[in-house]
Write a structure and sequence with these properties.
The protein has helices spanning 136-145, 163-172, 178-187, 205-216, 257-272, 285-302, 308-322, 374-389, 463-478; strands at 2-6, 16-22, 29-30, 35-40, 45-49, 54-59, 66-68, 72-77, 275-283, 328-331, 342-345, 351-353, 355-357, 360-362, 365-366, 403-407, 426-440, 443-457. The protein is an alpha+beta fold. The strands form five sheets. The protein has a six-stranded mixed β-sheet with strand order 9-18-17-16-12-15, covered by helices on one side.
């Protein structure tokens, strides 16, 4: 009996997936429930389990290939020598005999045997590279730290890589900035060969660029020395400019995966909306005081410190409930006219928070944020952000938002023009909190201030209503006690 392994449906918004790595080679035994391969959707990387006991007889979709969901990616047989004639007509990447809409991680069992056919088997893809044997804890640590396991020497049985091997590799690495580490990983550069010029020998972006340029630079013999003229004469006319040398390529990174999704969505937002950005400066002194008090009072209950983003999600959700015309989206009629369709007001308030991860910008969503308490929002934000940063977020956790907050205060940014996260109507940009001199009742005081930037789609909301919404957010920042009213 042949069991089909399919590309699973990992969320309502998932249409295709990319096979990242096969953890078994053709001919190896597998057990039901054992992790068989990893798959990457638009913004998440997850593990897929084997649907049955047996042997992985054929890999139909090699690592790095993107196929639609419910596509057959491999075949499992009960025995190692069971004939595959019954699947002889199965084409590589052909959809499984399944109904669309199966639940996440559900695997397909083979359809009734097809009639034997004298036609030859379809050509098999190239065999995947030999698998690196590593313990789950070692793989988890390597994934969190962005370490290529191929660079780690295993000390376990039969050369298996265990967690201590990854930890030892990390300890031997020189200090390196996050940007430099990403550049080196993308270019396949061993950081142990790079000399750092930063504080304490820390490797910087410039160090990696120099190392890559040196590795790519061709060896050119020195030209013979030119004879020195006895007396140089001034030129009769300005010498023609020397053509600039072509810029050398340090590395090439395909625009795929998360980066491709971000590029497509940002371009679509710029092309299809009429964005306008309003900015205002808020006195965040009381906002800071309230956060410090809540951080102290909720520390034992939460087990971590309450963040500014937790408070912002709470107060933005409150403002969206009070100003429902900002919690809308345009549903088009299918025509090319970007002004046609229906403005649909949404019943739920789902607030997304833009998060910087190693794989790119992700937007985990806090659903029904207006109905949740601050402690519940804080816990949910912490869990969603952690899963997003380690690549474990489900597609449904990264979609369905009705409004987005993006906070660049940690990067010492004051104000900026955020891009609308389609199909939403608006996005709030939050700058850093910084002490500045301010005039209060005719006197100059040092106050904590914060810039707020609201970008909205002018097709759906006019400037004055959008300004009233931003004004309410500013009021809640300046008087956060109003959240209790």
């Amino acid at each position: 009996m042949v069991t089909e392994v399919i590309m699973p449906v990992l969320g309502e918004t998932m249409n295709e997936g990319t096979v990242v790595e096969w953890l078994k080679q053709e001919g190896q035994p597998v057990r039901r429930g054992e992790v068989l391969f990893t798959v990457e959707s638009d913004k998440a990387t997850l593990e897929v389990e084997a649907p049955a006991d047996g042997f992985l007889r054929q890999i139909l979709v090699p690592a790095g290939t993107t196929v639609p969901v419910l596509t057959v990616v491999g075949l499992i047989t009960r025995t190692a020598d069971e004939p595959l004639e019954e699947s002889a007509n199965r084409q590589i990447g052909e959809p499984a005999n399944q109904q669309i809409g199966k639940s996440a991680n559900q695997q397909a069992i083979s359809a009734p045997p097809l009639p034997l056919s004298p036609s030859p088997l379809p050509p098999r893809p190239p065999a995947p590279a030999a698998r690196l044997f590593a313990s789950p804890r070692a793989r988890k640590l390597a994934r969190e730290k962005g370490i290529d396991l191929a660079l780690v020497s295993g000390s376990g049985p039969d050369g298996r890589i265990v967690e201590r091997d990854v930890a030892a590799y990390l300890a031997a690495l020189p200090a390196v900035t996050p940007v430099a580490r990403r550049m080196a990983e993308q270019a396949g550069l061993d950081l142990r060969t790079v000399q750092g010029s930063g504080p304490g020998g820390r490797i910087t972006k410039e160090d990696v660029e120099r190392a890559l340029a040196a590795a790519l630079a061709p060896v050119v013999p020195a030209p013979p020395a030119a004879p020195v003229p006895p007396t140089p004469l001034p030129p009769l006319a300005p010498a023609p400019p020397t053509p600039a040398a072509a810029a050398e390529t340090i590395a090439e990174v395909p625009l795929i995966g998360v980066r491709a999704v971000i590029a497509r969505r940002m371009a679509e937002s710029h092309r299809t909306t009429a964005p306008v950005t309003l900015t205002t400066e808020a006195d965040a002194t009381e906002f800071v005081v309230v956060r410090e008090r809540l951080k102290a009072s909720l520390a034992d209950e939460l087990g971590f410190n309450l963040g500014y983003n937790d408070l912002l999600i709470k107060l933005v959700a409150r403002a969206l409930r009070e100003f429902p015309y900002m919690n809308v989206r345009l549903e088009g009629d299918g025509s090319a006219d970007l002004t046609a369709g229906v403005i649909r007001q949404l019943a739920q308030v789902h607030v997304a928070l833009a998060v910087d991860t190693e794989r790119g910008l992700l937007v985990p969503v806090v659903r029904d944020a207006d109905r949740k308490g601050l402690a519940e929002i804080a816990r949910e934000v912490r869990e969603l952000v952690e899963r997003a940063r380690i690549g474990k977020a489900l597609p449904d956790e990264l979609s369905g938002s009705t409004f987005t907050i993006t906070n660049l205060g940690a990067y010492e940014v004051d104000a900026f023009t955020p891009i609308i996260n389609l199909p939403e109507t608006a996005i709030l940009g939050v700058g850093r909190i910084k002490p500045r001199p301010a005039v209060v009742d005719g006197q100059v005081y040092v106050r904590q201030t914060m810039w707020l930037s609201l970008t909205f789609d002018h097709r759906l909301v006019d400037g004055a209503p959008a300004a009233r919404f931003l004004q309410r957010i500013r009021q809640l920042v300046e008087e956060p006690y109003l959240l209790l009213a």
